[in-house]
């Protein structure tokens, strides 16, 4: 578990250090501060459950959330998962972030799916994930291709890798300069 947390922390640092990411997820910062202030496990559970209910309500009732709100809620779900709580929703919203043109949204979406996504539990989303990965792997934007390749390397789901192998292999054959 420590390796997983370290990997996510590294990914978060890399993602948030990118110059394209100017968004400050203030809502996430406030939520983390609230969790740190909890005096007992019971108060933490209560705060987490309240936040999960809020996020679920936002995802269910407001279909037109802006990019900032989607990123904030997906980042909160990822944080809650890293605290040890199960996350049973948000996968489709993370996939939607991956398909957006905003780099910071893609980054958070890929981070969420790299850590939480399970093809056994989320079988209906696998074709959408494969399609998004194919689009980004073949993108002319190097950072998008890197995000997609990193997600493939971190997840290693046979269903996904089998579908993407030709695309990944063609990239490996090319001579890229990532400078």
UniProtKB/TrEMBL annotation:
A Pfam family assignment: Adaptin_N
Superkingdom of the source species: Eukaryota
One GO CC term, this protein: endomembrane system
Alphabetic keyword roster: Membrane, Protein transport, Transport
Span of domain Clathrin/coatomer adaptor adaptin-like N-terminal: 45-175
GO process annotations (BP): intracellular protein transport; vesicle-mediated transport
SUPFAM superfamilies, A to Z: ARM repeat
Subcellular location: Endomembrane system
InterPro entries registered for this protein in UniProt: Adaptor_Complx_Large_Subunit, ARM-like, ARM-type_fold, Clathrin/coatomer_adapt-like_N
Ranges that cross the membrane: none
PANTHER family: ADAPTIN, ALPHA/GAMMA/EPSILON
Record protein name field: AP-2 complex subunit alpha (Trinotate prediction)
């Amino acid at each position: 578990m420590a390796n997983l947390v370290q990997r996510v922390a590294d990914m978060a640092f890399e993602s948030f250090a990118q110059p394209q990411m100017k968004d400050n997820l203030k809502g996430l910062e406030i939520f983390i501060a609230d969790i740190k202030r909890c005096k007992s496990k019971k108060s933490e559970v209560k705060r987490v459950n309240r936040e999960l209910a809020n996020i679920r309500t936002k995802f269910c009732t407001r279909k037109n959330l802006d990019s900032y709100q989607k990123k904030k809620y997906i980042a909160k779900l990822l944080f809650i998962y890293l605290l040890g709580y199960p996350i049973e929703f948000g996968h489709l919203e993370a996939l939607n972030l991956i398909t957006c043109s905003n780099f910071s949204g893609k980054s958070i979406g890929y981070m969420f799916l790299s850590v939480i996504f399970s093809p056994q539990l989320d079988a209906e989303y696998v074709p959408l994930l494969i399609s998004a990965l194919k689009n980004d792997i073949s993108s002319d934007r190097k950072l998008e291709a890197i995000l997609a390749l990193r997600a493939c390397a971190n997840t290693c789901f046979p269903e996904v890798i089998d579908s993407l192998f030709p695309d990944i292999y063609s990239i490996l054959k090319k001579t890229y300069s990532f400078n």
